[in-house]
Amino acid sequence: MRKNLFFILLALTVSSLTIHTNAQKKEITLEEIWQKNTFGAKGVQNFRVLKDGKRFIKQENGGLVLYDVASGKFIDSLITAKNLVVNGEKYPIFNYSLSNDENTILIESKPNFIYRHSYEARVLIYNVKTKKVSGVLGSNLRYATLSPDGKFIAFVDNNNLLIKAVDSDEIQTVTGDGSSGHIINGAVDWVYEEEFAMSKGFEWSPNSKHIAFYKFNELEVPQFSLEYYTGKTYPKIETYKYPKAGEKNSLVSLHIYTVETTETNDIANTSDDSYLPRIQWTHESNELCFQKLNRHQNNLEVFFADANTGKSKKIYEEKNKYYIDINDKFYFSNDGINMIYLSEKNGFNQIYTLDLRTGISALLNKGKFDIDQIHYYDAEKQIIYYTSAEVSPSERYLYRQDLKKNIITNLSKGKGWHSITFSENGQYYLNNFSTFNTPAKYTLHNSEGKEIRVLEENKELEKLLKEYKLGETSFGSFNTSLGHSLNYWQILPPDFSENKKYPVLFFVYGGPGSQTVKNAWGGGNYMWHQYLAQKGYIVVSVDNRGTGFRGEEFKKTTYLNLGKYEIEDQIEAAKWMGDKKFVDKNRIGIWGWSYGGFMSSLGITAGSEYFKTAIAVAPVTHWKYYDNIYTERYMRTPDENADGYNLNSPITLADRIKGNYLLIHGMADDNVHLQHANEMIRTMVDKNIAFDSEYYPNKNHGIGGGNTRIHLYSKMTKFILEKL
Q1: Cα torsion 544, 546, 552, 553: sign
Q2: What is d(CA 376, CA 616) in angstroms, rounded to the nearest whole number?
Q3: What pLDDT sits at residue 577?
């Protein structure tokens, strides 16, 4: 009895100390997160190891600085801020690239973004030997790119592709038919940029003799208009080509230009309503590899094209009953006999080798896990470096696979998320490592995995975080009533007690191949979720069916029915949380952005029995309003799959809304148009359904800039505190 009393007193003392310790810690404020950037993690900007393996470049103090790899000591200022002043005007570095001999540096400055990824910029050329900067090239150029030998610069101006000699004013006009809203040369249209993650539409050959480029004819693509408000009597109207589901695409063709002869060979086109999503040169400077994908995106063909003749031959074809995710890159052996690539054809994303002589494929690594990305292939040593979800879908680790010895080695140290960037020649890699609660640590490693140098640890931020009252976080999984195992993370209030009842807020994205349940630093949203935990909310995120890195069947379950199975799983998660004794099942909410806004809108409609409150930021509300490459990949066209589009639309289900619904949208969103919010609102008004809304003029899909984020998150916070 006395022994039990001792343990009771000890437990009370520990509990009292914990409460006292938490009481002494700071409360997070919205201003610290979204205005002051108090919790912003430092990165390693424009880091690059030079080919000699002895020096690396870091962007510092407005210039580029050389350091010794072995000692980490300063060597020299490669470019200073003073070097970047031309005719009294400053040109700060936005991005830079080097020629093959690393004696010429192309600097991009003062970018003007066109869409989310594409931009035009001022361009300067710096000679490393003479330490001189040549004048600014033109006004704003798109995708200025040095030829590998450093003698030429290719760029896009007024939708035409041009080539300028570095040491003279000589310009070659590769194309002359470019025109706004009609012909694009050397760049890509909106939907290719957004959904195939590409913007530059040309590539130099390794020997600098050829340049492969895209031509887009977007004349028949339907257009969409955005309004911008500037204080003038009438808003500014900007119109661009945007093909929604089922609508016409650009006619795309692929060409190769030869610099010496100024001749152009036609390589391929999409007259059969297909896509050309990737191009890359092989080891042979006269050989271009390009991919072709049918409109349903379930039949991939890979071709080699001869730059001198324009003739092409098919080397590989793959079909899938669902869809095929694009391979970012193929890798080739030095002898040109084998090709290395990723495929899901055995049910998991794995590495294959293809014998280009026989057409026979072989699986290189067997296992029921997904490989995330091939980061480097050492063709001479026959070693592949890749990251995978082998340990856990919520984590990433780097592996080294020796094909000669058939040995696979995990090179990563530390449980969490390892994001990898290899140097150009594969001697080194930059490791960006973080966990859910720990900001990024950047380290330089050699190809064997040995840590050479710590570049940034974010120690100050780690120390700062310890001063704040943060809730306990955890990862886990649970089984739904249908037997599906779903992964989750949760954040508990700092002074959590199982004897209290807490409201729960779900954070959701849930789209095909995505993940929110990642053991990686989440930045601003992580801190905001901790802020809500301080206010007494349990915050949870669940990766539903359709999300990635758990095999093909788990990911592609949602094919032709986007929203149906995803919201079933989120409802199951709400029921699972609601059954816990410390959860108030009548106070469960859900919020998300973009696809997550689609999901939270389904939560307050299809899941209205379980979700009291929902916030949808920039949501898709009906897939017929979204672009065709993304939507048709998972849904086919509206004519082919009318029920899939209609039955799982928040608009169709609007009359089931019972709780509190906040709809937020940027009025200049070129990705998910304001049309989605307006059509949802029109339906709710017709049905006399109460809702709340917030619009942001001139803001795109990211809804940022100036005081926008603090305004946005203050609005959402107030809504949660009042309605949940």
Answers
A1: positive
A2: 39
A3: 98
